[in-house]
Design a protein that fits this description.
The protein is mostly helical and about 200 residues long. It folds into 2 domains: about 110 residues, Rna Polymerase Sigma Factor, Chain: A; about 80 residues, Arc Repressor Mutant, subunit A. It contains 10 helices and no strands. The chain is elongated and about 55 Å long.
Length: about 200
């Protein structure tokens, strides 16, 4: 039997609604509103967290946990139109917890497994061998950084976020975000010779 409304029609109709409207529906108990919020923002969050964690499986868990947290706290969101930024803050907070846990597990000699979403692994297949080698070196440098510096650097240099967004996502002042990025830039330059521009 043919469905009454096709999946693509539902997705198209969600495009006509703003984030604020979808949040309003979701807060009112509308499952469709929740599903559309997930569909609209999950891929962005997965891409970002996979690069931050260098591990896709962990990133998928973070995204699931992000939406579980978000849907239980959605009614507390003051600016429904800014739901993506709010979801990003939740996700980055969960990434920070993962960093702390990974450090603890390493101290115990327990590793989380192979990183499959490193910068080198995510580069396009057409990338030249020297580009791959530079990214592999950068991945090694990133693994040695303090988690807070690594996170701020990745959000600024890889995700391309504005400094104010980085500070907000890292729950720190603008000056602290700048300092963390500068510290990371120094380490990157020391080990790779690459110099970044202004923070």
């Amino acid at each position: 039997m043919k469905p009454l409304v096709s999946h693509s029609v539902l997705l198209r109709s969600s495009d006509a609604l703003s984030d604020a409207e979808l949040v309003g529906r979701a807060v009112g108990g509308d499952r469709w509103g929740r599903e559309m919020l997930y569909r609209r923002h999950a891929e962005y969050l997965l891409t970002m967290t996979a690069r931050l964690l260098a591990n896709r499986a962990e990133a998928e868990e973070v995204v699931q946990d992000t939406f579980l947290t978000a849907f239980t706290q959605l009614a507390t969101l003051r600016e429904p139109a800014a739901v993506r930024a709010w979801l990003s803050r939740i996700a980055v907070n969960l990434v920070q917890r993962r960093f702390r846990r990974a450090r603890f597990l390493r101290l115990l000699g327990l590793d989380r497994g192979a990183d499959d979403a490193t910068l080198e692994a995510l580069v396009t297949p057409e990338a030249a061998p020297d580009q791959r080698a530079e990214l592999a070196l950068l991945d090694r440098v990133l693994r040695r950084m303090k988690p807070a510096s690594r996170l701020a650097w990745m959000l600024r240099r890889v995700e391309g976020l504005e400094l104010a967004e980085v500070a907000s996502l890292c729950a720190c002042s603008l000056a602290t975000a700048k300092r963390r990025i500068a510290d990371a830039d120094s380490l990157v330059h020391l080990h790779t010779g690459v110099t970044e521009g202004e923070s």
